[in-house]
Amino acid sequence: MRHIRIRLQDKEEKMFREQNGKLWIENDGEILTAEAWGNNAIRIRATRNRCLTNEDRALDEKDARTGEIEIFRDPDAGGGAYANMYAGSDKSFGRLRNGKIWVEADAGGVLTFYNSNGKRLLKENFKRLRDEISAPLNILGREYKYQSGENWKIRQRFEAVDGEKIFGMGQYQQQKMNMKGCLLELAQRNSQVSIPFYVSDNGYGFLWNNPAIGEVMFAENGTEWLAESSKELDYLVIAGDSPAEIVENYMELTGKPPMMPEYGLGFWQCKLRYVTQEELLGVARRYHEEKIPLDVIVVDFFHWTRQGEFKFDPKYWPDVEGMCRELNEMGIRLMVSVWPTIDLWSENFAEMKEKGYLVQTNAGIRPTMLCGGTEVFYDATNPEAREYVWEKIKKNYWEKGAKLYWLDVAEPEYTSYDFDNYRYYSGSVLETGNQYPKCYVKGFYDGMKAAGDPAPVNLVRSAWVGSAQYGALVWSGDIVSNFECLRRQVKAGLSMAVSGIPWWTTDIGGFHGGDSRSEKFRELFVRWFAYGCFLPVMRLHGNRSPQKRFEMEAIGSGGDNEIWSFGEEVYEIAKRYIFLREKLREYIREQMKTAHEKGTPVIRPAFYDFPDDPEAWKVDDAYLFGPDLYVAPVMEEGMRQREVYLPKGTNWIDVWEKKCYQGGNIVCVPAPLDRIPVFAAEGSGMEQLFK
């Protein structure tokens, strides 16, 4: 690993200096740099080691720039220390400017960020300065606790901004979209996606550029970030005049998605699980015979021989090539579930173990997951391991015609989340763990690109900063089938959008539970299905009741989960939304193009397009689907009308009633079972697509 080494100059320059276009600050054994990075952004790195690393982490789209640096050394500085408190006067400072943002470091080493208008955006929280009432507390804004080797437990503290609203941070299964007041674990779990980037209504974006396991607390009296084990502090602050400007700059630095292929614009059919080739083909044939558009059908888990062999079980899937050929003739693509798990009895286990391609444990037994066997995760942070797995995929799936992949268990999903006991090629999981899903999807993206796919799409259960550039389509995990969970998905999807994941979806109907015979579930299913029509990808999935068993298989198959499985009324409503999705195909394609070119999320909160409307920052139960459609899902059992706040700045047309409303008002609109409230921006003409 290459390091940036620094040396102290003469005594007069020992705290602030300029070198290689960066502002260097050295004090009491700490090295800190501030540098311009991209448009209107400043990157901060700091350590108590002898040198900084040269790792860019999520900022792998290199855009280091030269900012304007100003240094003032107070010739009259003087003072001393008393009872761990600094006493005296020193007006020295160092400043770095980059477009719309600048940072100042004072003589105490405290960083404060401002925009070009002089508005304070963010300030470190130190409690040891002579002008602080709380000086005796002796609390540092940057705190290092030694771990081992060159690693530290690092805390970064910032002062709270009264009334601040914070959005993004990935996907957390909770009822809050404004993260102010929340304590968040910085770790990946099934249905939890940690992407440490947020947008503040105070006019800035913040990236915690560190894949370490940790936590962040956005408390009313301060913000505190924690990395459990890291060699250095690393974060980025972006200023902007709007959330859109901030997010677009962020996406320039972390990677924008490829163009969504045509098959991503339509309807996807999936269930847990199609057990045989004939069962899957029977479903596909019925969609085709009834002339219901279907772009993708999915083969879920345990279609394989053993985990880690990455191939169909020929007992149940005897002619994969013929199956794919028939599906293609019907205009349907096949997607196959892939897990990163290697069974101890897999034909590949011994070789992968010998070559160091498996996740290591620091102590105890080797298995890291127990699901239908005894498994170890392959180490996706190892480039050679990624290539090894792709070659198996290419031979057993790609070359047989199965060319779309569902990368499940991507966190990875440890049976026991003992993060301190696992080790990757990239380092300990405590230090590097959160990047695993990004590495996992990258392996498939690189392989598919090399094999001739110009724009790979991979359905994946987790992500980190920068996953979008590798064709990551994230879904919200193994969630529960009820209205409360539906409400959470609406918030989760919008948080992911702000976090830099333009492609996101959810299991229509929820995953766990849902009885096809239940009228209550049928109502939930219809509401979820309508919501799914207005997501980046419309995908039906779930583990339904009544359950099925197949022969002597240890892993069963959920009940029927096709649109005709829930009664005639549900069937007719679902068909209407699938055909509506087809009518919207051109519009959706335009939004995918914008996401590809600018990083703009396909779905986004109201404030994204209407930042000057204070009420838009409060909306968490409706969202924009592109710039011209405003969607208000029905998320309460028995609800047949609902209130919706319409953003100020345009007029909105109810696409069903064709009634025009003035923005900036709350309206109450009909919401019968077959209708989701949707509004078209006046002048867009989008209401004409709805009959």
Describe the 3D structure.
The chain is of the alpha+beta class. The termini are far apart. Helix content is 20%, strand content 31%. It contains 12 helices and 47 strands. Strands 2, 3, 4, 5, 7, 17, 19, 20 and 23 form a 9-stranded antiparallel β-sheet that branches. The protein has an 8-stranded parallel β-sheet with strand order 35-34-33-30-26-25-24-37. A hairpin with a 4-residue loop joins strand 12 and strand 13. Helix 5 (383-396) crosses helix 7 (436-450) and helix 9 packs parallel to helix 10. The protein folds into 3 domains: 16-51 and 58-254, Immunoglobulin-like (Sandwich); 267-338 and 383-595, TIM Barrel (Alpha-Beta Barrel); 603-689, Golgi alpha-mannosidase II (Immunoglobulin-like), CATH 2.60.40.
Short description, anyone?
With 691 residues, the protein is of the alpha+beta class. It is 20% helix and 31% strand. It has twelve helices and 47 strands.
List keywords for this structure.
691 residues, 47 strands, Immunoglobulin-like, nine-stranded antiparallel sheet
Layout of strands and helices, then pairs:
Elements: E1 3-4, E2 16-19, E3 22-27, E4 30-37, E5 41-47, E6 52-53, E7 64-65, E8 68-72, E9 78-82, E10 85-89, E11 93-98, E12 101-106, E13 111-115, E14 120-123, E15 142-148, E16 151-158, E17 166-171, E18 183-186, E19 193-200, E20 204-208, E21 214-219, E22 222-230, E23 233-239, H1 243-254, E24 267-269, H2 277-289, E25 296-299, H3 320-329, E26 333-338, E27 341-343, H4 349-354, E28 360-361, E29 375-377, H5 383-396, E30 404-407, E31 422-424, E32 427-428, H6 429-432, H7 436-450, E33 458-460, E34 472-475, H8 483-498, E35 504-505, E36 512-515, H9 519-532, E37 538-540, E38 543-548, E39 557-559, H10 568-583, H11 585-598, E40 603-604, H12 606-609, E41 623-625, E42 629-631, E43 641-646, E44 651-654, E45 660-662, E46 665-670, E47 678-681
Helix pairs in contact: 5-7, 9-10
